User: Which sequence fits this backbone?
């Protein structure tokens, strides 16, 4: 195997596939990239088993030769060192040469930089399933990005309940429902999709976020869902992720009904006031008290050792009886930010019932936060 | 005690003094700022005992009232919370009011933000010595900054040998000598100062770096050195630091003599080549091999498990016999960067003797690195 390649395109492929490689792997073989040159181009694959990314560098981009002077073959090579070397090299083209199956020799085009890396035979790599199978869905990048931005933050980051680390996707009746929850809050987004597409899949939220980083400059992506994996096709890059097994929690009844107290405020003012009073919320996890009446809206927090904070919101509309409620201020800030709107509506049932945060002008997304017990 | 103050000026004073406060202190009282309003202005003091910073906010800046509606007094108040609150408040002016000696009430000028902090009586603060005493030196900010930039990086960060964490300053015969060393490398800067000033002081290198951060927008600073402390006056801000006790190591004999092998290279090319080969230097601490002859200059590194790297330097001038030497590449990069010049000169005696890195056009600064044993 050998090839001479434009450094910039090689680096792009390496860093894309390298995103799948974890710092320390329980399987050392996974610290390598699988590099394969075929008649269709150069394929670079990285994997941590949960997530696999396969990037392609073509022989030509338009009329320009990207890869030349080539001989097909494959090898495994330490991802971190290879990426560092290709990133730092002062050379427009790189020559990559495999001698005796596993000795990789890398040269800059000035022949002054010479790197020799101990590779591993490509057939020692793990078996990866990158075949598209199951139900297919094509989404615009803007739809996918907003789905992730409005839900992923609400998923749990604790591995104790794996299902809660997922975005639960359900397609039926021409709609795609995306739900994420860490059990103290829940985010739900609904998007229109073509009729007749049906599937249920629990995709790890952090992998959904990782995929948004691969979408820059792209218009759409294609996803296929089978029983145990989702396969994302983004241009010439293929991303496979294991799905999280198990039946997701029923969340239909989580949305509070009979919300009789409705608050409308400027999103930015409300976020800033919460951020300030949280400074004094040192004893309970970001606990903030919201006191509402038709006359005034007050946000406050206190710490017996440090002191207390109180903010009055001047610009608001409130309908309902007087109500005091406590919540995790960071959760409410994240929910409001995810809505991305100027004015936000909060709808309450009573002090100890979950409440809704939404954009009155967009009913495709709803945020629900469980209150904290007030003291 | 009470005052109404321009938020921006208050915040500037708080963050300046706050720089002296460590995250967690063995003495909880030191997590507070000492705030005192006198007839000369507002004084804000923070300290971790090793370092004390006292900032001043004046009553007026030019014709503009900075502090108004005031009553003198003093209080101690949690630094982190106070700074966070004043930073986040949406208010041009802040009212700061102490009720019953220690209850601090902070209001924004719209009266919608109300913060109450539990202060501590000012007389419970530690006794601090901020009196100027000893030998006085006035330096330009540019001289001070370059002295720190060219030496501080070479000091040790390990507290095991406290003297090595200092920049050793010695003034005599119209010269100021600044030396820093972690025993594997040494940096020495010489500056002209007025005749007749004599002192020896070991100032912690990290405090010298901290002081450069307080110098923005200033032209000069005044320093007084006594037996156990240095006092820096920067505009209206006073910084005091404990000196490190003990007699500094004799370093006069460290500068290698009879350097018969001289290499001149482009600083940037040389740094980049070292940075690249270091990628393969995984088994010995950033060890890099330099192989020099009048025909070629080669930098290389190898790791038995990963591979090897070799870089040829094309643009060089070398005088002397063929010589191979190994060194910590990061030390050489830091030394070259500290010189801040386009071309750099390295002067060697032999493979196992310390070598010199210098700027041929500036003999006020010298960098010395001890080689590593080559394998």
Assistant:
């Amino acid at each position: 195997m050998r090839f001479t390649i434009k450094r910039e395109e090689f680096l792009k492929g390496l860093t894309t596939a390298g995103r799948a490689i974890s710092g320390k792997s329980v399987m050392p073989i996974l610290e390598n990239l699988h590099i394969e040159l075929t008649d269709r181009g150069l394929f670079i694959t990285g994997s941590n088993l949960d997530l696999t990314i396969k990037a392609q560098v073509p022989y030509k981009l338009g009329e320009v030769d990207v890869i030349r002077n080539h001989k097909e073959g494959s090898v495994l090579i330490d991802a971190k060192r290879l990426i560092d070397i290709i990133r730092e090299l002062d050379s427009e083209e790189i020559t990559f040469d495999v001698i005796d199956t596993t000795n990789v020799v890398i040269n800059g085009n000035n022949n002054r930089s010479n790197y020799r890396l101990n590779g591993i035979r490509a057939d020692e790599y793990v078996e990866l399933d990158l075949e598209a199978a199951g139900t297919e869905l094509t989404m615009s990048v803007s739809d996918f990005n907003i789905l992730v931005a409005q839900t992923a933050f609400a998923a749990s980051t604790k591995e104790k309940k794996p299902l809660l680390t997922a975005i639960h996707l359900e397609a039926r009746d021409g709609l795609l429902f995306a739900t994420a929850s860490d059990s103290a809050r829940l985010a739900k987004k609904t998007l229109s999709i073509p009729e007749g597409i049906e599937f249920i899949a629990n995709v790890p939220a952090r992998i959904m976020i990782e995929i948004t980083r691969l979408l820059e400059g792209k218009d759409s992506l294609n996803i296929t869902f089978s029983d145990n994996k989702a396969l994302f096709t983004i241009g010439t890059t293929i991303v496979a992720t294991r799905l999280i097994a198990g039946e997701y929690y029923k969340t239909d009844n989580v949305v509070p009904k009979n919300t009789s107290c409705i608050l409308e405020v400027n999103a930015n003012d409300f976020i800033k006031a919460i951020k300030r009073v949280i400074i004094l919320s040192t004893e309970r996890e970001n606990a903030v008290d919201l006191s509402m009446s038709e006359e005034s809206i007050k946000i406050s927090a206190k710490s017996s050792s440090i002191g207390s904070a109180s903010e009055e919101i001047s610009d608001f509309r409130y309908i309902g009886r007087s109500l005091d409620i406590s919540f995790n201020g960071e959760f409410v800030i994240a929910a409001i930010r995810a809505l991305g709107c100027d004015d936000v509506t909060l709808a309450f049932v009573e002090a100890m019932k979950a409440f809704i945060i939404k954009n009155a002008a967009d009913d495709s997304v709803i945020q629900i936060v469980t209150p904290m017990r007030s003291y």
Remarks:
- The interface with chain B takes residues 78, 81, 84-85, 88-90, 104, 110, 112-118, 272-273, 275-276, 279-280, 305-314 of chain A (CB under 8 Å).
- Chain A has a mean pLDDT of 95.
- Chain A has six helices and 28 strands.
- Residues 30 and 37 of chain A are 19 Å apart (CA to CA).
